[in-house]
Write a structure and sequence with these properties.
The complex is a heterodimer of chains A (403) and B (438). In chain A, 49% of the residues lie in helices and 14% in strands. With 403 residues, chain A is an alpha+beta fold. In chain A, a hairpin with a 2-residue loop joins strand 2 and strand 3. In chain A, helix 4 runs antiparallel to helix 9 and helix 10 packs antiparallel against helix 12. Chain A starts with 10 loop residues before the first helix and ends in an 8-residue tail after the last helix. Chain B has three domains: 154 residues, Orthogonal Bundle (Butyryl-Coa Dehydrogenase, subunit A, domain 1), CATH 1.10.540.10; 98 residues, Butyryl-CoA Dehydrogenase, subunit A, domain 2; 126 residues, Butyryl-CoA Dehydrogenase, subunit A, domain 3, CATH 1.20.140. The chains are: A alpha+beta (403), B alpha+beta (438). At the A-B interface, helix 9, helix 10 and helix 13 of A face helix 9, helix 10 and helix 11 of B.
Chain lengths: 403, 438
Amino acid sequence: MINLEIPKKLKPIIAQANMVGANVFRPISRKYDTAEHAYPKELDMLAALMDGINDSGKGSGASAGGLAQADASKEEGVRNGANMATVLGMVELCWGDCGLALTIPRQGLGNAAIAAVATPEQKKRFGKVWAAMAITEPGAGSDSAAIRTTATLDGDEWVINGEKIFVTAGERANAVVVWASLDLSAGRATIKSFVVPKGTPGMQVVRLDKKLGIRASDTATLSFNDCRIPKDNILGSAEFDTKKSFAGVMKTFDNTRPVVAAMAIGVARASLELATKILAKANVHPDYAKSATEMSAIEDELYRLEAELEAARLLTLKAAWMADNRIPNSMEASMAKAKAGRVANEITLRCVELCGPIGYGETELLEKWARDSKILDIFEGTQQIQMLIVARRLLGKTSADLR
Amino acid sequence: MSKSEPPPLAKAAGKPLQWLTKLSDSSVAQKVVYRGAKAGMRAAGAAASAVFTATQKLSKPARLDRPDTPSRFDLNMTDEQRMMRDMLARFGNDEMRPAAEAADEACAPPAALLQQSHELGISLLAIPEALGGAAEQRSMVSNALVAEELARGDMGLALAMLSPHAVATALVDWGAAEQQAKYLPAFAGDDFVPAAIALVEPMPVFDPARPQTGAVATGDGGWKLHGSKTMVPLGETAELFVVAATILGVGPRLFLVERGAPGLEVTPAPTMGLRAAGLCRLDFDGVRIDRSAMLGEPGREGFDFDAFIDRARIAWCDMAVGGAQAVLDYVKTYVNDRKAFGEPVSNRQSVAFMVADIAIELEGMRLMTYRAASRAEQGKSVRRESYLAKAQCATKGMKIGTDGVQLLGGHGFIKDHPVERWYRHLRGVGIYEGALLV
């Protein structure tokens, strides 16, 4: 029965995440935006709290890691499960601060990958680590099949060689999930992921990037020079099927794209709420009952942005709902990411403009959110990649037809 | 439908109504099937004549309850809704599409097609059993899905087909017992009864919350209407109008005005699109109506003029969603078939991304619309949701309309393809208020 309201049972999770956003993140938002690369120690307490929630079995915290951690719901019929809970929680955390949300200890993207594909033995070993995800290379961004990092089996160890860039939490995490090829000549099906613990000889943090936004979250360049890890640190099997494997690796993105869309929605909502509050002092009072002649241009613009945000939000909930109900959602996940990414960037930038010098200045967070939002239309698949995915699905095109 | 299938009326008594017979409640199903069969037995082409006479007495107005909605995010239609959609999809493809261009040209819907749409049972689902209908609950979502699917067939024809449904819905939800007893049995009858809600007025910036048409009290408790309405569907044939007019010092109300009321002048007033709905201008020059003609006493029976506007907005969103879906379906096939430079034009990102954008924006429009309809069904406020959905559907719907023509290039500009008509239709969404209701 069609109903697009948030179910009652998920409201406590939303309230909890909102509290974290308001009381833990917001007070230190500006501090760690300014002190880029300083470790937000305030989050250690939060991480402990989230571990507790996850261990209690009530799972489905507001983290990408919570996605696969939450056990399959036993609910009959239509499910509002871990995917929806994660998305809704992430909206609230990123309404607080999306840079800080990205650097909550032990809630990294690598954790999601481990939770999704690790064996029980690996889960035991890696369950409590904070795992970053290393995919992008200097010569391979959106084209992740073109990575050059290699993993070669030598006795009981994998030997990893290559360079990874844009690794979120690459310095802070205790481990990195690295994408590497078993055989560069055999194409993308040979790409596998490996868990490399921090401190493994041969792995080095080469530099930390200085960024436009999400400065509370560290972004590292890592180098791997004959970096040796145990043979059973490979995630999934060492066999490869040239037809299937890569699609398998890429599939993890179907679940994480709605989460990034949720981040965008959180930041955009924060901007719109604050801008509306600031503009009220300038006698701008949006009211849906106003007639077209009574409405100011600014009020009309606020509605337009609000409508765009609502469209993005519902697309995101739809993608999460499909995932919860095991309906293939690759196209819908990309639709949500494409729409939310561009809309959040537009909203945050427009809110700065609408508030003028107050929006552009550093006394308010609007200018920060307008910087933060840009990455959300880039990572986990750029706007353009999402459009390719949607267009190919929609028009029945192969990647050879539509490049 | 292929030529070998039975004529429309026989069909109405048979197959297309199967979706209703599958409903769990057999009394509803039996009622509709009985009516369908009865319609099938009669000779086709009997002239529609709306004789509004109270054949029964109601001690109190017959209202419809809301369905129970579980607290769960869900995008699944009910089985009933799915069957209804399938039936309407066939009707849209087989009956509406072939008739749409000629109806647009003629600025009038074919009477036989309206009759056919009536025989599908659409109005029956708006009217309670006590008054000859088949409805047990008021489902705004079902109404929304019906409007969307008909609009996918053709927005102009859909407007004509749904116009009496909107009038019946207003009578069911806000009418007094005597008004219901007088008018509703005709809408639940065998024939399509043309009727329309008149809200929009001929002025540059029309505010639906403040109609300029005035209702002035006469000494004997009746009213006199002054003013003008436009974009009124089925104006020339309508037996009954529901007219929005403002009582000075009180506010806007709805009034029932029967066809041929002295002082009422009806003039065809074609627009850029939606022409198949037979849009007219109404001029009220002191039209005298009884005190009993006001629909929905203020503060009684939950009547609320704002809610009336909101529910109309949701219906217009459904129209936009259906119209935009037609565009998407059409251009998907076209850009894959059309070749340029030795390959399908859809192999180009500039073309493929435009189609992807249509799909993304359309889905956003649809979800916002469903949310608003579902909230209305649950009795929640839809002030915000209907406003935002309408704003989004007007803007994005028009963008989809113009992109649809663009994707066909010069071919999109000529009437060999329906996209130019859909372009004209979709411009109407931002302008229209009222006329339809979920």
